[in-house]
Design brief:
With 144 residues, the chain is of the alpha+beta class. The chain is built from three helices and seven strands; from the N terminus they run βαβββαβαββ. It has a seven-stranded mixed β-sheet.
């Protein structure tokens, strides 16, 4: 079952589960934390038989494109427990994230990922990083 939590309402039990999942999915990176630099606005999680098996963060921003401010949504750190991969659960999480972004009226989504193949199956397009970019690449979906 998919649940969406606004960050301030995230139950302590889910935070504990997130720490375990994040440490499993990203060894040596989160080190018991539930976020890196700043807390996301929302988290989408999936439980199966009472256990947390997936999660992704939604982070809303306004960026400057030319002279305009454009609303975007970042989908951050999607992960699925190893024993649950290959069943479409991560895909459902991506679809839910896109649905939430559409409801919020954002112009596009940005996803940072090492596994571009996962995102390309969902119509996201890889964009090359610029010299000023903090990442090696991103996947972008224009929401219409």
């Amino acid at each position: 079952m998919i649940h969406i939590f606004a960050e301030p309402t995230l139950p302590a039990a889910v935070q504990d589960e997130l720490r375990i999942l994040l440490d499993e999915a990203f060894p040596g990176f989160f080190n018991g934390r539930t976020h890196i630099k700043q807390q996301p606005h929302f988290r989408i999680v999936t439980h199966q038989r009472g256990n947390l098996i997936t999660r992704v963060e939604l982070d809303y921003r306004v960026i400057r494109v030319g002279a305009e401010g454009v609303c975007i949504c970042g989908l951050i750190d999607l992960c699925v427990r190893k024993h649950c991969r290959g069943r479409g659960i991560g895909s459902r999480l991506l679809e839910e994230g896109e649905g939430q972004a559409r409801k919020a009226g954002v112009a596009f989504m940005v996803l940072m990922a090492n596994r571009r193949d996962i995102y390309s199956r969902h119509g996201l397009e890889h964009v090359q990083a610029t010299k000023r970019s903090a990442t090696a690449g991103a996947a972008v979906a224009i929401l219409r």
